[in-house]
Amino acid sequence: MNEDIKIIFSKNLNRLMELKRETATEVSEKTGIAYSTVNDWKNGKKMARGGNLQKLSDHFGVNISDLTSENSAHQMIVNKPAFIELKGKVAAGLPLEMFDVPELVSVPYEVRERYPNSYLLELKGDSMNKLFMDGSYVLIDPCDNLENGEIGVVRVNHTEATLKRFYKLGDAIMLQPESTNPDHQNQTYDCSEGECESISILGKLVWAMTPIGMKF
C-alpha cells in the first residue's frame, strides 16, 4: 500500500474524530472494529479496506472518498451545511422571557459538531454590548453549572432569562453586565434571604455570530 495513501487516510480519520470528539476506543465500540485496528489507522500504520471503509463512512456520515482523498475531509467539512435551532430571544438588559421561534440558522459545520445539543438565542438589549451587538446570535450549550466569570443564560423568577457573566460569591449570586451603558449595574441576589431559589442556570455561552444583513 502506498505510504502517502495511508497518511492521507490517517489525516482524514483524525480530522473526523476530532470534530466528533471521539477517541479510538469510542470509534471501535461504535463501529465494531477492533481497537488495535482503529489505532493503527489513526497512526498511519495501515489503510482501511472494503467493509471497514464502509463502516467508517456510515459512522461519520461521509462518503468513502472523503476518507481516502487528499484534503477531502477538510473540504467536505467546510462545504457541508449545518443548522442550529434559534429558540428565542434573551435579554442583554433586564431579564426577558424566552419563547420558541420556528427558525433554523446556518452555522459552521465544526460548531454544530462540537456542540450537538446547543441552541441559538437572539440577544436583545445593550447590557452586553462590550462583547456583543444587540441582535447578535449567541450559542448556548445546556448545563446547570457555571464557573465564576463564565457567561451564561440564567433563568430569574422561574420564567425569565438573561445573558450575564456569572459569579457565586459566598451566600450570594451576582450577574454582571458587560456594557458601556452606566444604567446597567450588577444584579446581586442574597441566597441567605431565599433570593436564589428562583434562579437557575440554563447553559453556557460557547460561541456567537452576527446575523447576515445586520447594520453596523
From TrEMBL:
Residues 13-67 form the HTH cro/C1-type domain. InterPro entries: Cro/C1-type_HTH, Lambda_DNA-bd_dom_sf, LexA-like, LexA/Signal_pep-like_sf, Peptidase_S24_S26A/B/C. It holds the Pfam family Peptidase_S24. The lineage of its organism: Bacteria, Bacillati, Bacillota, Bacilli, Lactobacillales. It comes from Carnobacterium viridans. The keyword Translocase does not apply. PANTHER family: FELS-1 PROPHAGE TRANSCRIPTIONAL REGULATOR (PTHR40661:SF3), PTHR40661. This is Repressor LexA. One of its GO terms (molecular function) is DNA binding. The keyword Transcription applies. Keywords: DNA-binding, Transcription, Transcription regulation. SUPFAM superfamilies: lambda repressor-like DNA-binding domains, LexA/Signal peptidase. Signal peptide: none annotated.
